[in-house]
Design goal:
Elements: E1 13-18, E2 21-26, H1 27-31, E3 35-41, H2 47-59, H3 61-66, E4 71-76, H4 80-89, E5 96-99, H5 104-108, E6 112-114, E7 122-124, E8 126-132, E9 135-142, H6 153-159
Parallel strand pairs: 3-4, 4-5
Antiparallel strand pairs: 1-2, 3-8, 6-7, 8-9
Length: 160
């Protein structure tokens, strides 16, 4: 069952690309006592993610953070090296990049998208959520391929 408003964020260990390489980051710690905006993409460097989804959050990161958000994060079923390279490519230094390489968080959240038929393996659905102290306050999932609507930065801002 997909993550819904009122649900607690699953506690899973993800990776982020630190100064000395990949580092563990537990979602339980990341979300505890904080207001977090997390948006997830089907894949780093993919057209919709690179041309529409991520740029919206890059341009409006200061506005999101100014509304009482402690952490703005992006998750993808990619490895930490890819997420680090994408962060640099997108000038997304204000965004915490989270690698869910084994799709552990994505599956625990019930937001996986089986793209094996396209040679892409298991991916994440495109979504954005707002969580306060690990409890989901808003979640917007885009189910139509290439559409960035409910998971857009404007949808997040409208719900902050």
């Amino acid at each position: 069952m997909p993550l819904s408003v009122g649900d607690t964020i699953p506690n899973v260990t993800l990776k982020t690309n630190g100064p000395d390489g990949p580092e563990d980051i537990a979602t339980g710690e990341l979300f505890a006592g904080k207001r977090v905006v997390l948006f997830a993409v089907p894949g780093a460097f993919t057209p919709g993610c690179s041309n529409t989804h991520m740029p919206g959050f890059v341009v409006k990161a200061d506005e999101v953070l100014a509304r009482g958000v402690d952490t703005l994060a992006c998750l993808s079923v990619n490895d930490a090296f890819v997420m680090g390279a994408w962060q640099k490519d997108q000038n997304a230094q204000a965004i915490l990049m989270l690698a869910d390489g084994n799709a552990d968080f994505t599956r625990a959240a019930g937001l996986e998208n089986d793209r094996r038929s396209a040679g892409m393996g298991l991916r994440s659905l495109r979504y954005a959520l707002i969580a306060d102290d690990g409890v989901v306050q808003y979640i917007g999932v885009d189910t139509e391929r290439g559409v960035v609507d409910k998971s857009s930065v404007d949808a997040v801002l409208a719900n902050l």
